[in-house]
Amino acid sequence: MPNKTTEKKIIAPDQPLDTPALNDLGLCYSYEIARGEMGVLSFEPYKSLILPYWAFRTVPIAERSAQVLWTIFESYVDRRDLVGADMTRKFIQMGMTRARRYANHKGGRKYDKDSGEQLEKWTGDDVGGKRKEKEEASDIFKGYWRRCAECEEYGRLKRDWTRAKKEYLETQRSRP
């Protein structure tokens, strides 16, 4: 049987996570803020740095994961790494949306794997409280996601990064 994640296994990093985008402008400005959590599972090396701290199977696991991700988010904001902060925000948002999907769709599957058609929402009894548990897990992440969105320094960092990316791309286009 695979080793399941527990809240005790989700431990905040003892050192701040790396900030590769601060040392590599190409990496930094290849990042897309995008909508929602788009790109969260494909933008390396940040995906591999942050993913081990993301889990939502139970309420205690979701609470611990969201707390740890929030400290990672704050660390990236403090070090002015927009890419790291935004990727962490995306993981927090994905905790909210994935847990909600499991609350809405039994087994977490939104689309039929063969036809691709959207499956009906879960309407049966909440046997064992699984649905309620996923709703609560989603709400935990939602609270942290709102904190990210309301973080003034993150907002400033995002505006500064967007401006700097535009300037960077213009200089890249003007080079022979």
* Major pleated sheet: none
Please report the distance between the alpha carbons of the first and last residues: 57 Å
**Helix count, DSSP H or I runs of 4 or more residues:** 6
Shape: globular
Helix content: 55-70%
Account of the 3D structure:
The chain is 56% helix and 0% strand. It has one domain. The chain has 176 residues and is an all-alpha fold. It contains six helices and no strands. Helix 3 runs parallel beside helix 5. The model has no long low-confidence stretch (mean pLDDT 88). The termini are far apart. The longest helix has 23 residues.
What is this entry, summarized?
56% of the residues lie in helices and 0% in strands. It is mainly α.
What topology does this entry show?
Layout: H1 25-30, H2 46-50, H3 59-78, H4 82-104, H5 130-150, H6 152-174
Keywords:
DUF4385; 0% strand; mainly alpha; 176 residues; DUF4385 domain-containing protein
